[in-house]
Amino acid sequence: MAKFGGITHEFSAFTREFAAFTREFMPFTREFSAFTREFAAFTREFTTFTREFTAFTREFMPFTRELDEEY
After folding, report:
1. Non-local CB neighbours of 5 within 8 Å, separated by 6+ positions
2. Host H or E run for residue 17
3. How far apart are CA 5 and CA 2, in angstroms?
């Protein structure tokens, strides 16, 4: 029985240490989460821009080919 109590005490100590580590690590996690959200928004905007630019480029491609042939 005493051995079981020792394991419980060790696990309890580990849990306390892990909780302390988690509290210290939490601000970094929040900052990283905010960065991830901002980066995701940027990625969506960049993807939209890329699609629009691709469509624009396709529109002018025949015109550029004509210029290439003329000059």
Report:
1. none
2. helix 2-70
3. 5
Q: Which two tokens stand for residue 10?
A: 């060790």
pLDDT 10s digits, 7-58? 888 899 999 999 999 999 999 999 999 999 999 999 999 999 999 999 999 8
For 29-68, b/e burial (b = at least 16 CB within 10 A) is eeeeeeeeeeeeeeeeeeeeeeeeeeeeeeeeeeeeeeee
Q: What's the pTM value of the predicted model, to 2 decimals?
A: 0.57
CA 17 to CA 23: how far, in whole Å? Answer: 10
Give the amino acid at 18.
F
Task: Give the whole-angstrom CA distance, residue 37 versus residue 31.
Answer: 10
CA–chain centroid gap for 1, Å, is: 48
